[in-house]
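Exercise 7.
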Amino acid sequence: MRIVFCGTPEFAVPTLQHLLASKEFEIAAVVSQPDRPRGRGQEISAPAVKQAALAAGIPVHQPAKMRSEEARALLTRLAPDAVVIIAYGQIIPAALLAIPRLGWINLHASLLPKYRGAAPINWAIVNGETRTGLTTMRIDAGMDTGEILLQQTLEIGAEESAPELAARMAQAGAPLMAETLRGLREGRITPRAQDHAAASAAPILQREDGRIRWELSAGEIYNRIRGLAPWPGAFSTFRGQRCHLWGKPVEGTTPAPPGRIFFSGGEVEVGCGSGTLLRLDGVKLEGRKRVSAREFASGVRLGEGEAFGTDG
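Solution. The predicted structure, written as tokens, is:
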């Protein structure tokens, strides 16, 4: 099969490498987002998919917009049997969808129709899901609304963070995509429509999604700590200053109001909703490095009755 691979971040790299390692598939070209400034230094860097493609000697194209004549001409010239698209980062215009004879085949990190959108891994953890999965689908003009091809269920570890789950799902998705392509070629897959009434959203993360609401239970806050790593992270305020927090629920209850900080057996704990307790592992005040919860309490000379999130 002649394939054009369309993707950008690290999540897409295992599938690209898996397809490159198989003689069944010819990767005619890779399409990725343009190089962009990243990190504190804002240095221009290439997407992970571009780097992997160049290392394998595969031509890379980086059109600024997929709606351009350049993109249409490129795909028409390459004439792929299928386009594999994983976390590319742009909406594909309807005019391009009919170019590959088998369609545009997407790997999505949820069991569609649940968690349509840009951040399905994050929101599944935030919402306390214990299982998720992968879906290959033929994309259409909607947002993750296309026909389902294959699915695979995965458990979510009780302490698994979003980056950890994403890495595991990326590896599991590679053979699933290969099997999808084989099944389409051999006519073994019957696409099925999604149940749109059962759909849920996983919108792109915003900075304010990370703000801790202390009226939530400690378990719910812990899910946000896991699910919103590494960005925007889970944060609150302390003495008017933003601080990122890491911690886990512990047994026990407290009559203290949500957000109240106190010592317990040498540990730093925070009262949460329904009287539950979150034991802090680490704290990072704005502009400073992450320290242990004990170092934080000692460094700020934590006073009795102080609380997170009471000052905006």
